[in-house]
Each structure stands twice: as structure tokens, then as C-alpha cells.
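Review form for a predicted model. The reviewer records the input and the model, then writes brief findings.
Reviewer: anonymous (R2)
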Amino acid sequence: MTIVTEDPHDGETTETSAATAAALPRRTERVRSERVRMSGRERREQLVDVARKLFAEKGFEAVTIEEIAAKASVSKPVVYEHFGSKDGLYAVIVDREMNILLGMVSDSLTADNPRALLEQAARALFDYIEERSDGFRVLVRDSPVAQNTGNFASLLRDVASQVDERLAREFDSKGFPSKFAPMYANMLVGMVALTGQWWLDVRKPKKDEVVAHVVNLAWNGIVGLEKKPRLVTERGGAS
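Model under review:
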């Protein structure tokens, strides 16, 4: 004899024998117990973790609520209950990752000299890339048009703002126009971030060695800055 049953949580139907059906109440109770064992906060964190990994691997558009729910072993209504929509879940992830990265950079800036500050900022960004690779991959992907989560470029500007005031003081002490400090801060942060994207895929050389090379290029360039730089070539390649 075959009995058709329906999972009350997922709405899925399955066929089973009469002998197995006798054990269904116990199995159903066990499954229900496992599903409700998490608190609301724990479930929310689980969904964030699952979705972050999926968004990092496939991008926002390619991931569905059904896929997130399946990976978390919950029904779609559970995801909607916590975040309202896929957009809402994505926004939570991006906002969290941006705050973590900005916090790591800000907390790292403790030195009182510009070279050490440059090393600290570069190391903090590479530490974030290494420790939260999925989060970084989410940030560097294009945000959905409908989102108000900003994008990676705006995040880098926020990171640069953490160092431009200190860079301005250094410019003042050396007689350079401090009004250009924000521009140089964005140059430096952009260089580090782009190198970090490359390193995330190759993971060679070791992280600290890459940071040392980045700082070497940036610092030696700063030491040799011209007060009034000019281009030495004409358009079209003539010098």
C-alpha cells in the first residue's frame, strides 16, 4: 500500500509505504524540532551567511530566493519574513560588509608617521580580503540598480576619507598643496584595492609580501613627488 503525504512546512508531496508511514509522525516531529531549534536571530544570521556565499559565487541576479531557502533548509516564506525580499537580504549583506571593512581600516590607523599609516591601511584592506573573501566578492560586484547600497567605488571613497586628513597634514609639512590630499588618498586606496582583487584570485605571492610591494610603489612615489607635476608627452605620442 502506498500513502501520499505532504510536508506541512514546505508543501512538498512524497509517496511512502504503509510500514514507513507509521514512522512519519516521529520523523515529522524530529524535522520540525530541528527547524525551530534556531532562534530568530540565529536563523537570520544563517540566511545572511548562506546568501553571502551564493551572491559571491554567482552574483545578485543569478541567485533566487528558492535557492537561498533550499541551501538554508527552510521555506521561502521564512526568508521573506526576515528580509522582505531578495533585495532586502542583499542590502543587509552589503551594509554589513561595508561597515566591517571601514571599521578594520579605521581601527588600523594608529601610527604617527605617513609610511606606517600607509602600511596599516594597505594591510587592513588585505586582511579583510583574506578573512572575508565572500564579502569582498559581493562588494566588488555591481550592485543592483534598484539598490541604495552604494557600490565599491563609493566604499573606496569612504576608506580614502579615513586617511586624507592625515595625508593633508603631511602635505602641509612638506609644502605641497593640501587641497590635493583627498585626490591622492583615493589614488592610493584605489591602487591597493585593485591589487587586492587580483591577489584574491591568485593568492601569490604571500599577503604581506604583496602589501610590502604596494607600499614600496606608493611610498617611493610620494617621496619623489614634484610640487607642480606636468606631462612630458604630447597627445599622439610626441615628446
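Findings: The two ends are 90 Å apart (CA to CA).
Further findings: Confidence is low (pLDDT under 50) at residues 1-15.
Recommendation: see findings above.
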